[in-house]
Specification:
alpha+beta; 2 domains; four-stranded antiparallel β-sheet; two-stranded antiparallel sheet; 6 strands; 15% strand; globular
Length: 311
């Protein structure tokens, strides 16, 4: 495990010292990677016990269960509590049929309750007083971008071209006023997802799953399963590599990816450089229909001997 500890130290150092890593050319990256790899390996004490936790070695230190996660059976009570506490129930969808013509956007719009989204994404010290932009607006803007404009940049997306007063469908879906020129700042939106805690992301997932299970799409007999696949990266040649105690430490253009062993495939090499994607799926045993619920992308592709068997 020492080689994984060294690789983790190198990855942290590169990210901390070179936040603009992606903008550097390959020649510069190669020189930096070789220097850092040599320095860390030279100073590393192989006689000491590994103090890094398994969660950090696996890259999931920010994705461990913590307090505040709402269970699926508790979400219904949480939604009922929020709705019953409202003194006046406003109909937030009365304008949607008039302005949101796209069926997919209309379906998503009617699924979301801004009050509940704001509660799920609130933080310590959060106060809605005198705010023009709420967490629900950022969340809806992210959904709109992912559904309709995934190929454009945040800077271009958060502009008059897509949120001008003549783009009524987009403004209504995101929750922006039709009578003001309010725009969402592209810098804040681009940082929105990365600022969400693991608990907030899971609670959003549970919120969607609550309505998914109420939809009637499932029968009375379902099976849950996990499917995994490799996502190869195009950086085939490492910037720097070092053999330590028979283990290869490689630094690639994409700092987080690594070299691992894939499942046997006739037309492909047994080795792959990239990531592994795990998908949790629920299957209706009677109809055979399957529905992907959540996907987890491992930041480092593990070696086969470190994989746990499905259980």
């Amino acid at each position: 495990m020492h080689h994984k500890d060294i690789k983790l130290s190198i990855r942290k150092q590169l990210k901390r010292q070179y936040p603009n890593w992606k903008r550097l050319n390959r020649k510069t990256k190669k020189a930096i990677a070789r220097k850092v790899l040599a320095e860390v390996s030279a100073e590393y004490d192989f006689g000491q016990d590994i103090r890094t936790s398994p969660k950090e070695l696996l890259g999931i230190e920010q994705q461990i269960p913590t307090e505040g996660i709402i269970k699926l059976d508790e979400m219904a009570r949480f939604i009922h509590m929020i709705n019953s506490s409202k003194l006046i129930k406003f109909n937030s969808y009365n304008r949607s049929p008039n302005y949101i013509k796209d069926e997919e956007l209309r379906f998503v719009d009617e699924l979301l309750d801004d009050g509940i989204i704001n509660r799920l994404l609130s933080y310590d010290g959060y106060s809605p007083v005198m705010r023009e932009i709420f967490p629900s607006n950022f969340f809806r803007a992210e959904l709109l971008k992912a559904i309709k404009y995934p190929e454009i940049s945040y800077r271009k997306f958060c502009s008059e071209e897509y949120f001008g007063r003549d783009r009524k469908q987009n403004r209504v879906f995101v929750g922006l006023s039709l009578n003001k020129k309010t725009l969402i700042d592209h810098t804040r939106l681009s940082k929105f997802r990365s600022c969400l805690s693991f608990v907030q992301q899971i609670n959003l997932l549970v919120y969607i799953l609550h309505y998914f299970y109420k939809s009637g799409l499932f029968g009375d007999c379902v099976v849950h399963g996990i499917d995994s696949t490799e996502l190869a990266n195009d950086c085939k040649i490492p910037l720097a590599s070092l053999d330590i105690n028979g283990k290869k430490i490689r630094i690639y253009n994409d700092i987080d990816c690594d070299c691992g062993v894939r499942r046997n495939k006739r037309d492909k090499s047994v080795y792959v450089i990239g990531y592994r994607l795990h998908t949790l799926t629920v299957i209706d045993a009677k109809t055979g229909h399957s529905f992907p619920l959540v996907r987890v992308l491992k930041s480092v592709l593990p070696k086969r001997e470190n994989l746990l068997p499905a259980g």
